[in-house]
Design a protein that fits this description.
It is built from 6 helices and 2 strands. It folds into 2 domains: about 30 residues, no CATH class; about 120 residues.
Length: about 150
């Protein structure tokens, strides 16, 4: 085989050089496992972006949402609720709704809506990652990724 540099023949390649060039060429090509890993990471990123269309980012905010959802659930089940037992909901009286019961209902409704959209996002995320893992070649993996449709608002 002949070695070519900038379109000009410089000398014949040795068998070792040919093997080295072929190994380099093959290492530069995408492989299925690498593409699968990249596509699954992209799905995780897209899922997070999709979630952020519905929620405010941040670990502290997530804790706040959890606290409020728990308080709303307990409030709505409480026959004689004491406002002091619901500090997060009480902080929203006059802002989110005029009464503690109103705030509890708004927060509970938002939580129920989030459960539905969150579950849809998670189903899309996990099912497509599994399908990409099962893909027999790069083209199939890419086609699976390209066909993802996230839920609408």
């Amino acid at each position: 085989m002949t070695k070519i540099f900038d379109g000009e023949v410089t000398r014949d390649m040795t068998p070792e050089e040919e093997a080295e060039l072929e190994a380099f060429r093959l290492s530069a090509l995408p492989n299925l496992a690498g593409v699968q890993t990249a596509l699954k990471a992209a799905i995780d990123s897209q899922a997070e972006a999709e979630r952020l269309r519905y929620i405010t980012p941040g670990a502290g905010q997530a804790m706040t949402y959890q606290q409020k959802a728990g308080e709303a659930s307990r409030f709505l089940a409480d026959a004689e609720p004491n406002p002091a037992d619901y500090p997060m909901l009480s902080a929203e009286v006059g802002i989110t709704a005029e009464t503690l019961a109103g705030v509890a209902n708004v927060v509970n409704d938002a939580y129920i809506n989030w459960q539905m959209i969150g579950a849809a996002i998670e189903s899309i995320r996990l099912s497509n990652k599994a399908a990409i893992d099962a893909a027999a070649d790069i083209g199939i993996a890419q086609a699976i990724f390209d066909a993802i449709v996230w839920p609408l608002r």
